[in-house]
Amino acid sequence: MKLHEYQSKSIFALHGIPVPPGRVVTAPGEARRVAEDLGAPVAVKAQVLVGGRGKAGGIQLAGTPDEAEKVAAALLKAEVKGLPVHHVLVEAAADIRQEMYLGIAVDRNLRRVTVMASTEGGVEIEQVARDNPQAIKRAVIDPSLGLGSDQALTLARGIGLADDLYAAFSDIVRGLHEAFLACDGLLAEINPLVVTGAGDLVALDGKVVLDDNALFRHPALAQMRGAGEETPAERRAREAGLSYVYLGGDIGCMVNGAGLAMATIDTISFFGGAPANFLDVGGGARAERVEQALRLILGERGIRVVLINIFGGITRCDEVARGIVAALRTLEPSVPMVVRLVGTNEKQGRAILDASGQRLIVADTLVEAAQKAVSVMQGDGVANGDFG
Protein backbone atom coordinates (compact mmCIF):
# COMPACT_ATOMS: atom_id res chain seq x y z
CA MET A 1 0.00 0.00 0.00
CA LYS A 2 1.41 3.38 -1.08
CA LEU A 3 0.98 6.56 0.91
CA HIS A 4 0.70 10.04 -0.52
CA GLU A 5 3.46 12.54 0.10
CA TYR A 6 1.54 14.41 2.79
CA GLN A 7 0.74 11.16 4.58
CA SER A 8 4.35 10.02 4.42
CA LYS A 9 5.56 13.34 5.77
CA SER A 10 3.13 13.14 8.68
CA ILE A 11 4.79 9.84 9.64
CA PHE A 12 8.25 11.35 9.20
CA ALA A 13 7.39 14.26 11.47
CA LEU A 14 6.31 11.87 14.23
CA HIS A 15 9.84 10.45 14.17
CA GLY A 16 11.67 13.75 14.30
CA ILE A 17 12.40 14.22 10.60
CA PRO A 18 12.16 17.91 9.64
CA VAL A 19 9.58 18.60 6.92
CA PRO A 20 8.37 21.93 5.46
CA PRO A 21 5.27 23.43 7.09
CA GLY A 22 2.16 22.99 4.98
CA ARG A 23 -1.36 21.58 4.67
CA VAL A 24 -3.24 19.44 2.19
CA VAL A 25 -6.31 21.04 0.59
CA THR A 26 -9.05 20.10 -1.85
CA ALA A 27 -10.21 23.55 -3.02
CA PRO A 28 -8.41 26.57 -4.56
CA GLY A 29 -9.65 28.93 -1.86
CA GLU A 30 -8.14 26.71 0.79
CA ALA A 31 -4.80 26.85 -1.03
CA ARG A 32 -4.95 30.64 -0.91
CA ARG A 33 -5.56 30.65 2.83
CA VAL A 34 -2.65 28.26 3.46
CA ALA A 35 -0.37 30.46 1.37
CA GLU A 36 -1.48 33.49 3.38
CA ASP A 37 -0.76 31.67 6.64
CA LEU A 38 2.64 30.40 5.52
CA GLY A 39 3.74 33.49 3.63
CA ALA A 40 4.82 33.36 0.01
CA PRO A 41 6.41 31.76 -1.86
CA VAL A 42 4.85 28.31 -1.57
CA ALA A 43 5.00 25.05 -3.48
CA VAL A 44 1.69 23.62 -4.70
CA LYS A 45 2.07 19.87 -5.15
CA ALA A 46 -0.41 17.45 -6.73
CA GLN A 47 -0.97 14.44 -4.48
CA VAL A 48 -0.96 11.50 -6.87
CA LEU A 49 0.68 8.12 -6.42
CA VAL A 50 3.18 8.37 -9.25
CA GLY A 51 6.82 9.34 -9.60
CA GLY A 52 8.13 12.23 -11.66
CA ARG A 53 5.36 14.67 -10.70
CA GLY A 54 7.62 17.69 -11.08
CA LYS A 55 8.58 16.97 -14.68
CA ALA A 56 4.91 16.26 -15.46
CA GLY A 57 3.82 19.67 -14.15
CA GLY A 58 2.41 18.35 -10.89
CA ILE A 59 4.61 20.58 -8.69
CA GLN A 60 4.56 24.34 -9.17
CA LEU A 61 5.80 27.36 -7.24
CA ALA A 62 3.49 30.24 -6.39
CA GLY A 63 4.84 33.65 -5.41
CA THR A 64 1.60 35.04 -3.95
CA PRO A 65 -1.60 33.72 -2.37
CA ASP A 66 -3.48 34.69 -5.55
CA GLU A 67 -1.07 32.66 -7.63
CA ALA A 68 -1.34 29.72 -5.21
CA GLU A 69 -5.12 29.76 -5.68
CA LYS A 70 -4.78 29.81 -9.48
CA VAL A 71 -2.20 27.02 -9.53
CA ALA A 72 -4.30 24.88 -7.18
CA ALA A 73 -7.41 25.45 -9.31
CA ALA A 74 -5.55 24.29 -12.43
CA LEU A 75 -4.03 21.24 -10.77
CA LEU A 76 -7.31 20.12 -9.21
CA LYS A 77 -8.84 20.02 -12.70
CA ALA A 78 -5.84 18.26 -14.24
CA GLU A 79 -4.34 14.81 -14.50
CA VAL A 80 -0.72 13.97 -13.74
CA LYS A 81 0.54 11.04 -15.77
CA GLY A 82 -3.04 9.96 -16.33
CA LEU A 83 -4.08 10.19 -12.67
CA PRO A 84 -6.70 12.74 -11.56
CA VAL A 85 -5.70 15.20 -8.85
CA HIS A 86 -8.14 15.26 -5.92
CA HIS A 87 -6.03 17.21 -3.44
CA VAL A 88 -2.85 19.28 -3.36
CA LEU A 89 -0.25 19.93 -0.71
CA VAL A 90 0.59 23.60 -0.15
CA GLU A 91 3.82 24.05 1.75
CA ALA A 92 6.50 26.66 2.30
CA ALA A 93 8.97 26.81 -0.58
CA ALA A 94 12.53 25.84 0.34
CA ASP A 95 15.76 27.67 -0.46
CA ILE A 96 17.56 24.65 -1.91
CA ARG A 97 21.36 24.58 -1.94
CA GLN A 98 21.93 20.84 -2.29
CA GLU A 99 19.75 17.81 -3.07
CA MET A 100 20.31 14.23 -1.90
CA TYR A 101 18.46 10.94 -1.79
CA LEU A 102 17.87 8.92 1.36
CA GLY A 103 15.83 5.74 1.50
CA ILE A 104 15.29 2.50 3.39
CA ALA A 105 14.01 -0.65 1.72
CA VAL A 106 13.92 -4.41 2.12
CA ASP A 107 16.72 -5.92 0.04
CA ARG A 108 15.27 -9.30 -0.84
CA ASN A 109 18.57 -10.62 -2.17
CA LEU A 110 20.36 -9.88 1.09
CA ARG A 111 17.27 -10.55 3.24
CA ARG A 112 18.09 -7.40 5.13
CA VAL A 113 16.77 -3.88 5.54
CA THR A 114 19.14 -1.58 3.68
CA VAL A 115 19.69 2.18 3.91
CA MET A 116 20.60 3.93 0.67
CA ALA A 117 21.97 7.43 0.20
CA SER A 118 23.02 9.28 -2.91
CA THR A 119 24.10 12.71 -4.06
CA GLU A 120 21.63 12.31 -6.94
CA GLY A 121 18.62 13.77 -5.17
CA GLY A 122 15.45 14.68 -7.03
CA VAL A 123 15.96 11.85 -9.52
CA GLU A 124 14.21 8.49 -9.37
CA ILE A 125 16.59 6.09 -7.65
CA GLU A 126 15.98 3.41 -10.29
CA GLN A 127 17.39 5.78 -12.91
CA VAL A 128 20.43 6.50 -10.73
CA ALA A 129 21.00 2.76 -10.27
CA ARG A 130 21.00 2.33 -14.05
CA ASP A 131 23.00 5.40 -15.06
CA ASN A 132 25.36 5.98 -12.14
CA PRO A 133 25.27 3.04 -9.68
CA GLN A 134 28.46 4.13 -7.91
CA ALA A 135 26.60 7.22 -6.71
CA ILE A 136 24.47 5.07 -4.38
CA LYS A 137 25.99 4.27 -0.99
CA ARG A 138 24.47 1.50 1.10
CA ALA A 139 24.39 0.35 4.70
CA VAL A 140 22.96 -3.10 5.44
CA ILE A 141 21.28 -3.36 8.85
CA ASP A 142 21.79 -6.47 10.94
CA PRO A 143 18.37 -7.18 12.52
CA SER A 144 19.99 -8.39 15.72
CA LEU A 145 22.02 -5.19 16.15
CA GLY A 146 19.88 -2.53 14.54
CA LEU A 147 21.12 0.62 12.87
CA GLY A 148 24.56 1.59 14.07
CA SER A 149 25.61 5.22 14.51
CA ASP A 150 28.76 4.42 12.56
CA GLN A 151 26.63 3.35 9.58
CA ALA A 152 24.88 6.72 9.36
CA LEU A 153 28.25 8.46 9.63
CA THR A 154 29.72 6.30 6.89
CA LEU A 155 26.80 7.17 4.62
CA ALA A 156 27.24 10.88 5.31
CA ARG A 157 30.92 10.69 4.40
CA GLY A 158 30.17 8.52 1.40
CA ILE A 159 27.95 11.16 -0.21
CA GLY A 160 30.35 13.98 0.65
CA LEU A 161 28.15 15.71 3.18
CA ALA A 162 29.69 18.65 5.04
CA ASP A 163 31.07 17.78 8.47
CA ASP A 164 28.74 20.16 10.31
CA LEU A 165 25.71 18.26 8.94
CA TYR A 166 26.78 14.81 10.16
CA ALA A 167 24.77 14.95 13.39
CA ALA A 168 21.57 16.19 11.73
CA PHE A 169 21.94 13.62 8.95
CA SER A 170 22.42 10.80 11.48
CA ASP A 171 19.28 11.90 13.32
CA ILE A 172 17.27 11.79 10.08
CA VAL A 173 18.61 8.34 9.18
CA ARG A 174 17.63 7.07 12.63
CA GLY A 175 14.21 8.69 12.36
CA LEU A 176 13.60 7.18 8.94
CA HIS A 177 14.62 3.75 10.20
CA GLU A 178 12.31 4.08 13.21
CA ALA A 179 9.42 5.16 10.97
CA PHE A 180 10.10 2.27 8.59
CA LEU A 181 9.98 -0.29 11.40
CA ALA A 182 7.06 1.31 13.23
CA CYS A 183 4.72 1.11 10.23
CA ASP A 184 5.95 -2.23 8.82
CA GLY A 185 7.27 -0.53 5.72
CA LEU A 186 8.60 -2.01 2.52
CA LEU A 187 10.04 1.33 1.45
CA ALA A 188 10.53 4.73 3.04
CA GLU A 189 12.37 7.40 1.10
CA ILE A 190 13.14 11.10 1.10
CA ASN A 191 13.77 12.39 -2.39
CA PRO A 192 15.05 14.96 -2.22
CA LEU A 193 16.56 15.51 1.19
CA VAL A 194 17.83 19.05 0.84
CA VAL A 195 20.33 21.37 2.45
CA THR A 196 18.70 24.80 2.68
CA GLY A 197 20.31 28.20 2.45
CA ALA A 198 20.20 28.35 6.25
CA GLY A 199 22.23 25.14 6.43
CA ASP A 200 19.37 22.91 7.59
CA LEU A 201 18.45 19.46 6.36
CA VAL A 202 14.79 19.16 5.32
CA ALA A 203 12.77 16.30 3.81
CA LEU A 204 11.31 18.05 0.77
CA ASP A 205 9.44 14.99 -0.47
CA GLY A 206 8.40 11.70 1.07
CA LYS A 207 7.29 8.27 -0.01
CA VAL A 208 6.22 5.30 2.11
CA VAL A 209 5.11 1.89 0.90
CA LEU A 210 3.50 -0.35 3.53
CA ASP A 211 3.31 -4.12 3.70
CA ASP A 212 -0.33 -5.01 3.06
CA ASN A 213 0.11 -8.21 5.07
CA ALA A 214 0.88 -6.17 8.18
CA LEU A 215 -1.94 -3.64 7.92
CA PHE A 216 -4.03 -5.54 10.45
CA ARG A 217 -1.58 -4.19 13.02
CA HIS A 218 -2.07 -0.61 11.80
CA PRO A 219 -5.78 0.19 11.39
CA ALA A 220 -5.07 3.94 11.32
CA LEU A 221 -2.63 3.50 8.44
CA ALA A 222 -5.03 1.22 6.61
CA GLN A 223 -7.55 4.08 6.60
CA MET A 224 -5.05 6.18 4.65
CA ARG A 225 -5.40 4.09 1.51
CA GLY A 226 -5.79 6.47 -1.41
CA ALA A 227 -8.65 6.17 -3.88
CA GLY A 228 -6.24 6.26 -6.82
CA GLU A 229 -3.92 3.58 -5.53
CA GLU A 230 -5.84 0.62 -6.91
CA THR A 231 -8.28 -0.14 -9.68
CA PRO A 232 -11.92 -0.98 -8.85
CA ALA A 233 -11.14 -4.64 -9.54
CA GLU A 234 -8.13 -4.58 -7.22
CA ARG A 235 -10.25 -2.97 -4.51
CA ARG A 236 -12.95 -5.62 -4.86
CA ALA A 237 -10.30 -8.34 -4.73
CA ARG A 238 -8.76 -6.89 -1.56
CA GLU A 239 -12.15 -6.63 0.10
CA ALA A 240 -12.86 -10.25 -0.84
CA GLY A 241 -9.46 -11.41 0.45
CA LEU A 242 -8.21 -12.41 -3.01
CA SER A 243 -4.68 -11.88 -4.32
CA TYR A 244 -5.17 -10.10 -7.64
CA VAL A 245 -2.97 -8.18 -10.08
CA TYR A 246 -4.21 -6.87 -13.42
CA LEU A 247 -1.83 -7.71 -16.28
CA GLY A 248 -3.71 -6.33 -19.28
CA GLY A 249 -4.09 -9.44 -21.46
CA ASP A 250 -7.19 -11.24 -22.69
CA ILE A 251 -6.99 -14.67 -20.99
CA GLY A 252 -8.43 -14.45 -17.49
CA CYS A 253 -6.78 -16.74 -14.94
CA MET A 254 -8.18 -18.22 -11.73
CA VAL A 255 -5.74 -20.41 -9.85
CA ASN A 256 -5.21 -21.63 -6.28
CA GLY A 257 -1.71 -20.98 -5.02
CA ALA A 258 0.71 -18.21 -5.97
CA GLY A 259 3.32 -20.55 -7.42
CA LEU A 260 0.76 -22.37 -9.56
CA ALA A 261 -0.64 -19.00 -10.66
CA MET A 262 2.80 -17.89 -11.84
CA ALA A 263 3.32 -21.20 -13.63
CA THR A 264 -0.07 -20.80 -15.32
CA ILE A 265 0.80 -17.28 -16.48
CA ASP A 266 4.17 -18.47 -17.81
CA THR A 267 2.62 -21.42 -19.65
CA ILE A 268 -0.03 -19.26 -21.30
CA SER A 269 2.67 -16.82 -22.40
CA PHE A 270 4.83 -19.68 -23.71
CA PHE A 271 2.06 -20.72 -26.09
CA GLY A 272 1.57 -17.17 -27.34
CA GLY A 273 -1.28 -16.06 -25.09
CA ALA A 274 -1.62 -12.88 -23.05
CA PRO A 275 -2.65 -13.42 -19.40
CA ALA A 276 -5.14 -10.83 -18.20
CA ASN A 277 -4.41 -11.17 -14.51
CA PHE A 278 -2.80 -12.93 -11.59
CA LEU A 279 -5.53 -14.23 -9.30
CA ASP A 280 -4.89 -16.62 -6.44
CA VAL A 281 -8.03 -17.82 -4.68
CA GLY A 282 -5.85 -19.43 -1.99
CA GLY A 283 -5.92 -22.79 -0.31
CA GLY A 284 -9.21 -24.17 0.91
CA ALA A 285 -11.20 -21.93 -1.41
CA ARG A 286 -14.88 -22.66 -1.06
CA ALA A 287 -17.66 -22.21 -3.59
CA GLU A 288 -18.48 -18.64 -2.52
CA ARG A 289 -14.88 -17.55 -2.90
CA VAL A 290 -14.60 -19.14 -6.33
CA GLU A 291 -17.77 -17.36 -7.44
CA GLN A 292 -16.35 -14.03 -6.23
CA ALA A 293 -13.14 -14.67 -8.19
CA LEU A 294 -15.01 -15.45 -11.41
CA ARG A 295 -17.14 -12.35 -11.01
CA LEU A 296 -13.95 -10.33 -10.66
CA ILE A 297 -12.36 -11.78 -13.79
CA LEU A 298 -15.46 -11.53 -15.93
CA GLY A 299 -15.95 -7.94 -14.84
CA GLU A 300 -12.71 -6.86 -16.54
CA ARG A 301 -12.85 -5.53 -20.07
CA GLY A 302 -11.22 -7.42 -22.91
CA ILE A 303 -11.53 -10.92 -21.46
CA ARG A 304 -11.91 -13.39 -24.33
CA VAL A 305 -11.45 -16.69 -22.48
CA VAL A 306 -11.06 -17.78 -18.85
CA LEU A 307 -8.67 -20.49 -17.70
CA ILE A 308 -9.39 -22.09 -14.32
CA ASN A 309 -6.48 -24.16 -13.01
CA ILE A 310 -7.09 -25.86 -9.65
CA PHE A 311 -4.80 -28.33 -7.93
CA GLY A 312 -6.77 -29.77 -5.05
CA GLY A 313 -4.89 -30.30 -1.83
CA ILE A 314 -6.55 -28.39 0.97
CA THR A 315 -8.80 -27.00 -1.75
CA ARG A 316 -11.49 -29.53 -2.76
CA CYS A 317 -12.24 -29.82 -6.44
CA ASP A 318 -15.94 -30.42 -5.78
CA GLU A 319 -16.16 -27.12 -3.86
CA VAL A 320 -14.47 -25.31 -6.72
CA ALA A 321 -16.80 -26.95 -9.22
CA ARG A 322 -19.87 -25.80 -7.25
CA GLY A 323 -18.50 -22.25 -7.26
CA ILE A 324 -17.89 -22.36 -10.99
CA VAL A 325 -21.38 -23.65 -11.71
CA ALA A 326 -23.02 -21.11 -9.38
CA ALA A 327 -21.10 -18.25 -10.98
CA LEU A 328 -21.89 -19.37 -14.52
CA ARG A 329 -25.60 -19.69 -13.81
CA THR A 330 -25.69 -16.21 -12.33
CA LEU A 331 -23.32 -14.39 -14.67
CA GLU A 332 -24.09 -16.21 -17.91
CA PRO A 333 -20.71 -15.31 -19.44
CA SER A 334 -20.31 -15.05 -23.18
CA VAL A 335 -16.65 -16.12 -23.14
CA PRO A 336 -15.40 -19.74 -23.24
CA MET A 337 -14.19 -21.36 -20.01
CA VAL A 338 -11.28 -23.78 -19.85
CA VAL A 339 -11.19 -25.83 -16.65
CA ARG A 340 -8.52 -28.08 -15.20
CA LEU A 341 -9.37 -29.77 -11.90
CA VAL A 342 -6.81 -32.14 -10.40
CA GLY A 343 -6.42 -33.48 -6.86
CA THR A 344 -8.74 -33.86 -3.87
CA ASN A 345 -12.26 -34.92 -4.93
CA GLU A 346 -11.30 -34.53 -8.57
CA LYS A 347 -13.87 -37.08 -9.81
CA GLN A 348 -16.67 -35.47 -7.84
CA GLY A 349 -15.69 -32.04 -9.15
CA ARG A 350 -15.69 -33.19 -12.76
CA ALA A 351 -19.04 -34.91 -12.25
CA ILE A 352 -20.52 -31.63 -10.98
CA LEU A 353 -19.21 -29.82 -14.07
CA ASP A 354 -20.49 -32.54 -16.41
CA ALA A 355 -23.96 -32.44 -14.85
CA SER A 356 -24.17 -28.64 -14.88
CA GLY A 357 -25.24 -28.29 -18.48
CA GLN A 358 -22.64 -25.54 -18.92
CA ARG A 359 -20.42 -25.52 -22.01
CA LEU A 360 -16.94 -25.99 -20.59
CA ILE A 361 -13.61 -26.95 -22.11
CA VAL A 362 -12.02 -29.59 -19.87
CA ALA A 363 -8.27 -30.24 -19.70
CA ASP A 364 -6.20 -32.81 -17.79
CA THR A 365 -2.89 -30.93 -17.57
CA LEU A 366 -1.72 -27.34 -17.33
CA VAL A 367 -0.04 -27.53 -20.72
CA GLU A 368 -3.25 -28.84 -22.30
CA ALA A 369 -5.33 -26.16 -20.56
CA ALA A 370 -3.02 -23.35 -21.72
CA GLN A 371 -2.96 -24.67 -25.28
CA LYS A 372 -6.74 -24.89 -25.38
CA ALA A 373 -7.17 -21.41 -23.91
CA VAL A 374 -4.83 -19.89 -26.49
CA SER A 375 -6.46 -21.92 -29.28
CA VAL A 376 -9.93 -20.75 -28.31
CA MET A 377 -8.74 -17.15 -28.04
CA GLN A 378 -7.36 -17.38 -31.56
CA GLY A 379 -10.71 -18.59 -32.80
CA ASP A 380 -10.25 -22.27 -33.57
CA GLY A 381 -11.05 -24.00 -30.28
CA VAL A 382 -14.81 -24.30 -30.86
CA ALA A 383 -14.32 -25.42 -34.42
CA ASN A 384 -12.20 -28.31 -33.24
CA GLY A 385 -14.96 -29.51 -30.93
CA ASP A 386 -13.13 -28.86 -27.67
CA PHE A 387 -16.25 -28.13 -25.63
CA GLY A 388 -16.94 -30.83 -23.08
Topology (elements, then pairings):
Blueprint: E1 2-3, H1 5-14, E2 22-25, H2 28-38, E3 42-46, E4 59-62, H3 65-76, E5 79-80, E6 83-84, E7 88-92, E8 96-107, E9 112-118, H4 125-131, E10 136-141, H5 149-158, H6 166-182, E11 185-196, E12 201-203, E13 207-210, H7 219-222, H8 232-240, E14 243-246, E15 251-255, H9 258-270, E16 277-280, H10 287-298, E17 305-312, H11 317-331, E18 337-343, H12 346-355, E19 361-362, H13 366-377
Parallel strand pairs: 15-17, 17-18, 18-19
Antiparallel strand pairs: 1-13, 2-7, 3-4, 3-7, 5-6, 8-9, 8-11, 9-10, 11-12, 11-13, 14-16
**The CATH homology group name of the largest domain:** Succinyl-CoA synthetase domains
Low-confidence stretches: 381-388
Which CATH-level-2 architecture of the largest domain?
Answer: 3-Layer(aba) Sandwich
Largest sheet: 7 strands, antiparallel
Helix/strand class: alpha+beta
What is this entry, summarized?
With 388 residues, the chain is α+β, with helices and mostly antiparallel strands. The chain folds into three domains: 21-92, 2-Layer Sandwich (Dna Ligase, domain 1), CATH 3.30.1490; 96-222, D-amino Acid Aminotransferase, Chain A, domain 1 (2-Layer Sandwich), CATH 3.30.470; 232-377, Succinyl-CoA synthetase domains (Rossmann fold, 3-Layer(aba) Sandwich). The chain has 13 helices and 19 strands.
